[in-house]
Structure prediction request, 342 residues.
Amino acid sequence: MTKNLIFFLVFVSHYFLLGQSKIELEPLPSSPDYSKISSWASHPKIEDPSDIIYKSSERIDKENRESYGDLQGSIPTFFVYPTIYFEGKTWNADIFDASYRNDTRLPLAFQAGVFNDLGPIWAPHYRQMMYEGYVQTSFAEQKNAKTAYDTAYNDVFRAFKFFLKENPEGSFILAGHSQGTGHLKRLIKDYLIINRELRNRMLVAFLVGGWVGIEEMGDLPICDNPEDINCWMSWRSCGKDFKRKPYGDHIGVVNPLTWSSNTAATNRKLHKGAMYPNGKRILRRGLGSKIDDGLLRIQKLKGPFGWFFIWEDYHRADYNLFWFNIRENIYRRARKIELTEY
Prediction:
């Protein structure tokens, strides 16, 4: 909880102070070499937070294997973590900075980790753009931010190509959050959509915590039922009064309680529980959700415990809120591949 509070306070303070300080441009941090383990935040040969199997998930993991077969280790996930770089002297993070590397631990544990029962997690360290790049106050900052964002994307792209080299066959999952989702969205548009073999190998893409236009993804379909494969999904969680552009019906949203783009409000009985930062399962059947204007609105929080989680913005909890629903659903989709292969 202390780590989460510090992270939140840094985020908020930076949000209101942006534009009052300037980033001194220095030489670009060293480029990652993805043939080296040191350039990976998570890797099959590294023991890291994404490997944690929480006791709170043991029951649903057992149910998954009973319902869909034991698919442990069968499908790797390529995960791109969200913005963790909030201040520094350069527009791009130094992946060898100890503080930066340490800050990857939370998203690895509570976002990437949801996929770990299905297979190993591959998460590259990348020279991500500083958060300030999202709120430029001048033309010069816009130019610097674009260069920084392109640099980060090129790292992710190179890491993905290495991932494919090490995993030349079989299915894989793409998953990201926030800035990570932005880079994966671009990767899919630039590289994966035009490659039929890769499209067929991609089980599903979790483009969470970002904005994905339906038309942006070309003929790659949005997932619209719990067993769709070779498709993508996205959601950005918020409260009933949250408003932030871009939003609108052109934004693709999948409700992780129904795994469809249906805009009807969901019953909280569909909710399998949220993952709390201490590894505990909370709020089982504790909330409903509704797609509205390109957003996923959290509603019907079950009291009295759930009332402590009535927030305006749930962005940081996009994965945590639906952790156990995701945990079950990836097995269900993976089983679809197993059935078509035999």
Summary: Confidence is low (pLDDT under 50) at residues 1-21. Residues 139-166 form the longest helix (28 residues). Residues 127 and 300 are 39 Å apart (CA to CA). The helical segments are 2-17, 58-68, 98-102, 105-110, 139-166, 179-192, 196-201, 323-341.
